[in-house]
Amino acid sequence: MMGEPLLLLVDDDPDDLDVIGAVLHRAFPRSVVRTAGGAGDAMQACDNEAFDCVIMDYNMPGCDGLHCTKSLRAGFPYLPIVLSTGFGDELLAAHAVQSGVTDYLPKSRITSDSMKRAVEHAMRLSDQARVIDEQRGELETFAHALAHDFKQPIRQIRTFSALISDSINHGSTIGLQQHLGFLDNAARRLGDLVDVMSEYTLLNRPPEMMSVDLNLVIGEIRTSLEPLLRERAGVLNADHAPTVRGNATLLEQVLQNLIVNGLKYNKDPAPTLTIAFEIDRSNCIIEVSDNGIGIEAQYLDEIFRPLARLHADSEYQGTGLGLTLARKAVLAQNGSIWCTSAPGVGSTFFVRLPLADPAAV
């Protein structure tokens, strides 16, 4: 399951430390096992190192395993903890789970096989809990922000519908065409929000991975954006690209989003976008640079959050989900994305993806 798990064994009995430590090494031959003689030592050890799992004795003087577990859980909510005891029963097991123990193993039943199952099971459960909490938090933030963002175009639709209705009732066409234009823009924005919400949720599905020639992806983007580039008098430069492992559709979405942003958030009379590539061992780093308005340093961690917008819609239109979707798409392809920027200078977005064939580089 893991190459070299870092395990913490907590027991006040030196003999048990030796015996259970030997069992752990048989269960996980490549593991690193630290030991602690009590709750205080265990807390200190967890403060110093990131353990993959803690195996905790129940019957310890001063602070039993359940109280120690509560203390550890407060500081390390997703730390897998397996409780071991010589006095185990079903009631104790129930109390153990309520106290935050991930799994339970009586000392009388400890073997290398049972220990391996318990530790691996605890690590899986803790990892699942972490993922669920992260997804729940992300969805709550997304739902709250999206509900807030829906209100503006809905309010505009109601306002301009009422104005149009009033004009028709009074037989007047003054301002009617303008009101219809505002109504259409509000409806378009609402439709964009619905579309992007669908994409956001669909990106929770794992994509099909394959070898992707980035030259072909950039060619498709260039064709797609040719009218926009011509309208903005923009220039898109791109170096010869390597082949990466990913999903062509998602990669096109990511890079097109970054290029469109570079054109949109740009006051230069000749917006210039440059796509360059750097090989980092078995990875390719795609660099998308622009000469746009740039982003202040304190906002660089915020731009990938759902519906995070740094500008009013009257200044720069958008859903506020483009970079969120880009990040989800990159992560779904086992990659990473980040940005460097300076106001008035421009931005560079970096996308790291695995090479399709590192040996060919």
Rg of Cα set: 28 Å
Extended strand count: 12
Tell me the β content.
15-25%
CATH superfamily of the largest domain: Histidine kinase-like ATPase, C-terminal domain
- Unreliable segments (pLDDT under 50, ≥5 consecutive)? 310-319
Largest sheet: 5 strands, parallel
Sketch the topology as an H/E string, one letter per element.
EHEHEHEHEHHEHEEHEEHEE
- Helix content estimate: 40-55%
Average of the residue pLDDT scores: 83
Question: And the CATH topology of the largest domain?
Answer: Heat Shock Protein 90
Provide the domain count. Answer: 2
Number of helices: 9
Instruction: Name the strands of the widest sheet in spatial order.
Output: 2-1-3-4-5
User: What's the CATH first level of the largest domain?
Assistant: Alpha Beta
Shape: elongated
What is the CATH architecture descriptor of the largest domain? Answer: 2-Layer Sandwich
Structural class determined from secondary elements = alpha/beta
- N- to C-terminal separation? 30 Å
Which terms summarize this structure?
single chain, Heat Shock Protein 90, five-stranded mixed sheet, 12 strands
Structural overview:
The protein is an alpha/beta fold. It folds into two domains: 6-132, 3-Layer(aba) Sandwich (Rossmann fold); 207-361, Histidine kinase-like ATPase, C-terminal domain (Heat Shock Protein 90, 2-Layer Sandwich). 49% of the residues lie in helices and 19% in strands. The protein contains nine helices and twelve strands. Strands 2-1-3-4-5 form a five-stranded parallel beta sheet, with helices on both faces. The chain has a five-stranded mixed beta sheet with strand order 7-9-10-12-11. A hairpin with a 3-residue loop joins strand 11 and strand 12 (346-354). It is elongated, with a radius of gyration of 28 Å.
